[in-house]
Automatic annotation (TrEMBL):
PANTHER family (UniProt xref): CYTOCHROME B561, CYTOCHROME B561 HOMOLOG 1
Membrane-spanning segments: 12-33, 53-71, 92-113, 149-170
Localization (cell): Cell membrane
Domain Cytochrome b561 bacterial/Ni-hydrogenase intervals: 9-182
Main location: membrane
Protein name: Cytochrome b
InterPro entries xrefs: Cyt_b561_bac/Ni-Hgenase, Cytochrome_b561_oxidase, Di-haem_cyt_TM
Keyword entries, A-Z: Cell membrane, Electron transport, Heme, Iron, Membrane, Metal-binding, Transmembrane, Transmembrane helix, Transport
One Gene Ontology CC term in the entry: plasma membrane
Molecular-function annotations in GO: electron transfer activity; heme binding; metal ion binding
């Protein structure tokens, strides 16, 4: 996918990686808080605000996906550590590709879900995004199931990805984690 293989991730790539990780964490925390907020007259406004923030975080992930992809095509990203076993390299690349795929598809499904429910997305409370599909309750139900399934898949993949990075740091004691956290360079 990449044209070149630089020897490191630069500050922009590291910044984007951690910004997106934080936004994804925020999207989960916001929707869990939304789920645990009762639908009562005094919490109704808060509930709406929480889901709106969830959508803002998710749409920002979607926009940053394109920034990351374009920048990856322009600058390239470092090849996986050639010292690793071929199976480990394959697994790491597959997980990275699946993470990229989910950063695209999960927010798109969320956006379609909002449209199908009949609620247009007001990005940052300012821009009304176009509806991706017409209002349709049955479709909204299916999209909600798909959105939940993909979000669970993302959680599992991020878990695997982070566990792999920590294994490199604590067990293999190599420089993989330091590529994304340069202050850890030994
Ligand atoms: C990083 C991106 C995103 C993640 C990780 C994420 C995650 C989740 C999770 C875990 C749920 C709860 C699923 C359930 O229990 O049914 C959810 C629900 C939902 N999400 Fe997202 N989402 C993302 C992006 C978006 C976007 C971009 C939108 C819309 C623009 C969106 C709209 C919704 C809506 C409308 C619900 C249903 C809330 C309800 O009525 O219960 N999501 N999301
Ligand atoms: C605690 C959480 C996380 C840790 C410790 C972590 C760590 C790392 C490390 C060390 C790398 C570099 C791997 C290498 O050079 O071989 C990396 C790359 C990557 N990470 Fe994460 N990460 C985390 C969360 C996330 C999240 C939430 C996402 C997005 C869903 C993500 C997506 C990616 C992608 C796509 C790459 C590959 C970039 C490329 O080379 O194109 N990471 N991560």
């Amino acid at each position: 996918m990449t044209k070149k293989s630089p020897s490191n991730y630069n500050a922009l790539q590291i910044g984007l990686h951690w910004l997106v990780a934080l936004l994804i964490l925020a999207a989960f925390i916001l929707v869990w808080t939304f789920d645990n907020t009762p639908l009562a007259p005094d919490t109704f406004k808060l509930k709406l605000q929480l889901i709106a923030w969830h959508k803002w975080a998710g749409i920002t992930v979607l926009m940053l996906f394109f920034v990351r992809l374009i920048y990856k095509l322009i600058r390239g990203t470092p090849a996986i550590d050639p010292e690793l076993k071929p199976i480990e390299r394959k697994m790491a690349v597959s997980v990275h590709h699946l993470l990229y795929l989910l950063m695209l598809v999960l927010p798109m499904v969320g956006w379609m879900l909002s449209s199908a429910k009949g609620y247009p997305v007001m990005l940052y409370g300012v821009w009304q995004m176009p509806d991706l599909v017409a209002k349709d309750e049955a479709l909204a139900h299916t999209l909600k199931e798909i959105h939940e399934l993909l979000a669970n898949g993302l959680m599992v993949l991020v878990g695997l990805h982070a566990a792999g990075a920590l294994k490199h740091y604590f067990i293999d004691k190599d420089g993989t984690l330091a590529r994304m956290l340069p202050f850890l360079k030994r």
